[in-house]
């Protein structure tokens, strides 16, 4: 049985890897590691990615996609900018969020709209549930069920859902 020999990364290999990474970046800033491996015939996709991420990344100037934690202020600004700029993600990126790419901004906006739709759907469902319960439950003097407290509970649940959806 023949064992595979480990091939040491030379300076030329490193330069080729950086050039391949720069060429194979997608519009959103992510690296297409399959394309990188095609430029490096003696290396696999996994070898290229692993070597770069674990060894070279900290020592070179290749810009990679950075994950961003959005603040509440940035979220509000994004929603307003999307209306003002009519969802021109390139303009929004250049004018308001230069540290991010247009794809990240568009993805966050889509996610926010989905969350808002889900929150609205939950709110409608809770309102319907409270209306159904108020119609089914007889209102008597001895009954501890009270419509006003039920409506307060629905409002509290709606505010909690809105808080969690953001």
TrEMBL record:
Q: Where is the HTH myb-type domain?
A: 1-60
For the keyword DNA-binding, the answer is: yes
Ordered alphabetically, the record's keywords are: DNA-binding
- Myb-like domain residues are 9-56
Q: Extract the InterPro entries matched here.
A: Homeodomain-like_sf, Myb_dom, SANT/Myb
Keyword Secreted present in the record's keywords: the answer is no
Matching Gene3D superfamilies, A to Z?
A: Homeodomain-like
Q: Name one GO molecular function term.
A: DNA binding
Q: What is this protein called?
A: Myb-like DNA-binding domain-containing protein
């Amino acid at each position: 049985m023949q064992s595979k020999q480990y091939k040491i990364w030379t300076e030329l290999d490193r330069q080729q890897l950086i050039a391949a990474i720069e060429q194979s970046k997608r519009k959103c800033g992510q690296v297409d590691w399959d394309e990188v491996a095609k430029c490096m015939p003696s290396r696999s996709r996994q070898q290229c990615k692993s070597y770069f991420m674990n060894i070279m990344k900290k020592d070179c100037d290749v810009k990679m996609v950075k994950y961003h934690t959005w603040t509440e202020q940035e979220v509000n600004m994004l929603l307003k900018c999307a209306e003002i700029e009519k969802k021109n993600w390139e303009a929004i990126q250049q004018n308001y969020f230069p540290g991010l790419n247009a794809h990240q901004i568009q993805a966050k906006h889509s996610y926010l709209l989905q969350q808002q739709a889900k929150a609205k759907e939950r709110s409608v469902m809770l309102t319907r549930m409270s209306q159904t319960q108020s119609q089914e439950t007889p209102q008597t003097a001895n009954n501890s069920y009270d419509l006003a407290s039920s409506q307060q509970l629905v409002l509290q649940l709606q505010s909690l859902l809105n808080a969690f959806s953001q």
